[in-house]
Amino acid sequence: MTSVVAVVTAFEPGPELIGVVESAVAQVDSLIVVDDGSPSLRSDPSGAVRRTLDACADLGATLHETPDNRGIAHALNVGVTEALDRGADAVLTLDQDTRLEPDYVARTSDHLALAASLGLTDVMASPSLINDDVAPFWFAERGLTLAYEPIQSGLVITRSLLEKIGLFEEELFIDCVETEFYLRARAHGGHALIVPGTRISHRLGSRARWRPPRLLRPLLRGYGAGVEFSEDAPFRHYYIARNRLDLYRRYGRREPLWCAVSIAKDTISRGRAMLIGSHRLRRVYLTAAGTRAALRGERGRIPARTLRRARLAGGEPVSSARPLETDRGLPDLVSVVIPVHNGVATIDDQLEALAAQDYSRPFEVVVADNNSTDGLREHLEGHRLADRLDLRWVDASGPAGASYGRNAGAAAAAGDFLAFCDGDDRVYSSWLTELTAVARRCSAVGGAVETSSLNTPRTQSWRQMLPPEMPYEFPGFLPVSPTCNLGVWKNRFDAVGGFDVAYDRGAEDADFTIRIQLAGGVLGHAPRALIAYRLRDTLRGIWDQSVMCGEGDARLYAEYRAYGMPPRPWYATADVIAYLLLRNPLLPTVITRVPTGRWLFQAGNLLGRIKGSARHHAWYV
Asked: Which InterPro entries match (predicted)?
């Protein structure tokens, strides 16, 4: 009887890992889960990843947790070494989303016994069906079908093969790890076998759709609705290009047919993603960077500088590809926190909008009073919506500023999820429903704003806001979210220490959401969680706001340039200066075609960046 030990590698695993363990643990002698340094285990020690791993342990899995992320090959080697120490005759390797049929291991063990009877002992066995698609195969060896470049997930490797050729090559880090192992096995006389009648389900990349331009649709009959295909995350183009080229150089003479087929397949799959997939410029850059790295003989993890340059090439942070968190479910109680300073004139509009929420679960409203002198407390005491909203007034007297008020409100909140909005805006009726729906798999989530409801057309023309579907971000760095529409889990808020009250000149919201992400969290975007946003309606107001925003951005750069935040490119500054000169309001409006308020916002923002750069000793103009 063949003794089989399963090894499952994981990184920021979700509930699907529990299903993997459930499908495999009864079929093997023992099962080992190796977590490859998930950041959440450090940033949120009792969070969703911890609960997932503990659930696997309850099912009978042995847990190994590496202190940092060293790549899938290292994680596999940790588990395989432990399996061999346990006396395994064969090791089954699995990914964190792979499901096995109930008889998978039994069928594979029988096939290994058949191979041994034919004199084949240095072998690995792989499934015949992957997601109901026939796995690649080619020749036969002594009547048994040989697999062509089998995937690592679902692979059963005999002890004799591992002892003969060694473990997985860790310097490849990720991608092509199993391919190198397969080619090395063939070079030493080993074989990869297809096991008839076996099936696994496994996610192969993410689904993408390309819709041809309208002019091409008549020529591409049958594809007018679009072409669906699978694509890898952009950063993997670096590893695939680097590692494949390395393997061509090492095994090309011995495996010319494999090289030819591999080049053809990669040209189609990777080329298609670069031509019609998402983040095309980033994919092109990372492919070129990986090719250059292979020519230079570079190995290991992708350099941080390459990731930063890829962000600039693609226009969207690579960090956005970070996996979502495990589904937390909806909050038990939402605490809506509203910092207010002298807001009696406008807060009723916001409270009425909150009372009209279609959110079906409990929530409370906490108004944090930051030094108001207009009778705000008296206005809220006995308010007609007090019971309906579970409304509470909180004393946030102290340093002036919304950050201090938000921290005071959060400290008094009873909920496990905090939703921040402002007292002079107005939330849409589905705000909490949409915000919490996205927050189920994120540490924090930013909503969207519209400016048409609460502002005159003249005021709207002064400041251009992003459309709801576009999240805010610092190009080449990380996404951020304004605190006029932001939700965050209370434990994440406490873990990063809340808002930094030292940001007294704006950007406290960007600083907070950046710290959430640097601590291993995920910032989501909920475009349908809308708020009607009130703009500054005086020229002095728009000027003061723009100067403050510029100073805050410069402070952010001073503090986060060491984390990869890039400087403003010179051409962006040149563009602003040209704009201010050519669109100067002293010139006739028929020539400039720019409202005075918009010009002032650009000018004030530039002045703010200059002042902030001088104040914080970091050039961000």
From this structure: Glyco_trans_2-like, Glycosyltransf_2, Nucleotide-diphossugar_trans
